[in-house]
Amino acid sequence: YIVAATYRVTPGEEDAVKSALTAMVSPTRGEEGCLEYHVHQSVEDAKVFFLYERYRDEKAFKTHAAADYFATHIKETAWPRLESRERIFCEPFGGEE
């Protein structure tokens, strides 16, 4: 189960969002159902962040989204500082795992 998200940050809030996303890496990667968790910042526009997340299944993602640290770092810290957020949810096919 793949989650790809693009965050466009309100100008001046880049450092706060970057800190929040950095704080998410270790606990998320430690989740039993998390297979990959990568955060990126655009080299062309520092206000743009891209997240690539891979979970065992949708249930594992929902467990991740229900974690206390998700509420603290994402819902309460990152999301209020965004101009926009786009997410797509995908499942691999065609031999991809």
Describe the fold and architecture.
The chain has three helices and four strands. The chain has a four-stranded antiparallel sheet. With 97 residues, the chain is α+β, with helices and mostly antiparallel strands. Helix 1 (14-29) runs antiparallel to helix 3.
Question: What proportion strand?
Answer: 25-35%
Strand arrangement across the biggest beta sheet: 2-3-1-4
Overall pLDDT metric: 96
In helices, the fraction of residues equals 25-40%
Shape: globular
| Annotation, overall tally of beta strands | 4
Largest sheet: 4 strands, antiparallel
What's the order of the H and E elements? EHEEHHE
Structural class, by secondary structure, is: alpha+beta
- How far do the termini sit from each other? 9 Å
What is the number of helices? Answer: 3
List its traits:
single chain; 97 residues; alpha+beta; four-stranded antiparallel sheet; 3 helices; 36% helix
Topology summary:
Blueprint: E1 2-9, H1 14-29, E2 34-41, E3 48-55, H2 58-65, H3 68-78, E4 82-90
Antiparallel strand pairs: 1-3, 1-4, 2-3
Helix pairs in contact: 1-3
Concise account of the structure shown:
With 97 residues, this protein is an alpha+beta fold. The protein has 3 helices and 4 strands, in the order βαββααβ.
